[in-house]
């Protein structure tokens, strides 16, 4: 019996190895747990196109929006672990375990990480006629007026929601939070001076900032961004160590053969070094990571550290999703 079991195990390992060697032999589906047309969808489609070149098979994007990205993520976690279903998700993967009281997957164990993909800095912005002209003046105004200042976010778990929590915690002052159903309406009301301020990823604010339709105070990256050379970092502007970016990671379901994950990681590393992809991502104020970060280890470490970072902030704010 032991000999039979050993033989079966060897046969299974051989079949798995052959399958991995022939991978991919058909198109790959990349789940995006958000609606088409948004920043994450744009990152996914550009990355999928670049990865298709080196994989020799199309990587097709399928949008599965809903519940802050948890519906699509759950589907990906339950998919057959053969490398033909992968998931591209953003920073929300690290906040979901705390934001959602009922989550049917554990982000830290339900997936085989492939690698980090991109980083997008956040921008602290306000309506064009807001009286504060610098970040220091903005903070002073908020501390003086508190809940008299309105802060817009795109809903629980959105980048603007997370940045707002971090910002209010950093300055130790609460504003009146106004939730919206998306970034588009926020920008419309911000440009129309119907709302005071927000903090959102540069992908969403770049157009209005460049057109001087809103007022910019700082970027939340360690260095200034070439898209906004005159916009200081938050640290430069008087908010020390205030750093935040919307990062994207690529995942496969747990149990995906290591050889298959390695091929996907290799294709991702080729993609993030592709000048054409870099140029197209730069146009939407998002930046591919360096090759050394497009690895399973780097993504797992980032996920774990971000979960630890956001858990106490979310619990302290008491802002949970249903």
UniProtKB/TrEMBL annotation:
Gene3D superfamilies: Bordetella uptake gene, domain 1, Periplasmic binding protein-like II. InterPro entries: BUG, Bug_dom1. Belongs to the UPF0065 (bug) family. Residues 1-19 form the signal peptide. Pfam families: TctC. This is Tripartite-type tricarboxylate transporter receptor subunit TctC. It comes from Ancylobacter defluvii. Keywords: Signal.
